[in-house]
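In this supplementary section we document a worked example of the pipeline. Step one takes a protein sequence of length 294 as its only input; no multiple sequence alignment statistics are reported here. Step two produces a three-dimensional model, which step three serialises into structure tokens for compact storage. The input and output of this example are shown verbatim.
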Amino acid sequence: MRGAPPPREPKPPWLKVRAPGSAGYRRLKQLVQSLNLHTVCTEANCPNIGECWDQGTATFMILGDVCTRSCGYCNVLHGRPQALDLEEPSRVGRAVASLRLDHVVITSVDRDDLPDGGASAFAATVRAIRSARPECRIELLIPDFKGQDRALKTILAEKPDVLNHNIETVRRLYRSVRPAGRYDLALDLLGRAARFTPTITTKSGLMVGLGETLDEVIETMADLRKHGCRMLTVGQYLRPSPANVPLARYYEPKEFSEIKHVACGLGFHHVESGPLVRSSYHAHEQADAATRAT
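The serialised model returned by step three reads:
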């Protein structure tokens, strides 16, 4: 039929996962709902939600569930966020203690409406987690804060165990995939974090399948290493909805293995590369491996 969209390419078998529904998944879901918390697992339609939640692992998303930016790959709601919830950090701390987590990942929507981009909320959340469960290792997946030094230093002062900022895609595709961000700003943030606080492990993530070339992937990984990034995740882009940036192609598992081989050769302390890899997937194991490599 004229004007009809092309048929969707079926997902290859290595991208098919079991639907969630285990007892562990239901317990974590009930806890998150009872404490009025958000997770990137649900907001981003992560394919690993069943596996991670069954193991009692979640990535908590602070600062609400409405983002001030509208990235082409992201499924999080874009619009005007609500006022800052000052009780949210303590609720995250209670959740971490209730789940008896040894490693937690905290991320957020972009909050360009706030003077510090939400950095103070990250800092308050770190303090709340350490008060509720001191033995828990904390990984922060932060926005770029528009390059604000003060915001970055506010977070680094709390000494998170891992500081993550995802570069997401290659330089050529940045304008179409991440129009409110800048490739060099993302690199600069990681570089400044590595210089300001060398004891904190820096980490970044990259999606493939958006139309990039292998040479561009390698160039991006090399740029990350030049800016002190120690840990890397590489995963398949999965289009959340027809409104998002189109999928160019699916990478095969052997291609992810080749990317990992190149990345390890560039000197990353730890690399996770695979079709279902996301920045917080097996975050505990990633951090353990990177620590052993130092």
